[in-house]
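Board notes (copied after class):
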Amino acid sequence: MAQHASASLPASATVPSVNRPGAFEPATLSAYDVSAWFGTRKVLERVSLQMSARRVTALIGPSGCGKSTFLRILNRMHELVPSASLAGQVLLDGVDIYGPTLRTTQTRLRIGMVFQKPNPFPTMSIAQNVLSGLKVSGTKVVNRDQLVEECLTAAGLWKETRNRLNAPGGALSGGQQQRLCIARALAVRPQVLLMDEPCSALDPTSTRVIEETIGSLADAVTIVIVTHNMQQAQRVSDDCAFFLVESEGEAGRIIEAGLTVDMFSDPADERTADYIGGRFG
């Protein structure tokens, strides 16, 4: 079975301290020739994509084409599946996240994840949910109250929760819980935030608020989002990558990638035009 090819650390690369309490530091995430397997079944075929700092990159394509698998590879969650393997390189500002320089825990702090279904800790308070990753990461914070306010504000949730920070996180609405999960992810100061269909279970009003939150975060953290909503991809993303499985039994691959405005107004590939136009998928 294929093994991961580790990249060498460039001489100019530096790895920021995990314990810093400072501002967010968006990073560029680059994938090169990434292939992935579950057992003997190949699910991704030589995917290469640059996800630039301070930009939102949308991953689009039909169900089952490898978008979520690719997203999980970007913060080393793919390897949690016992039968999973991969080949290729993923670089965070030039540093191989599968190499010896970054430990797995460091990688997942630097590259946070927000899942499709909101998963706050239901018995923890809103404030405790925001701070829950700090103990695990060993992150030192002088003023936790200030951090809670900053993260809830960044996630668009502060005004709705500032007078009930001790209320259970599980008592919030679905849209509020998703924003709480975003605030929790931001508390450990990630450089990249991965979002796997974060609005798929939400009503239109909550979806709009989440999309506004994504827009407000773009200067603070690099964002990569999986979405099946073409209008959402147009609204929130700067760049876009179209994944596709061309025939049964084949692995997913990127058919086209580029500026979102270009892909939706003048796609270079007929298959992209057909998918965006709703002719399949």
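Comment from the instructor: The longest helix spans residues 204-217. The chain is about 30% helix and 25% strand.
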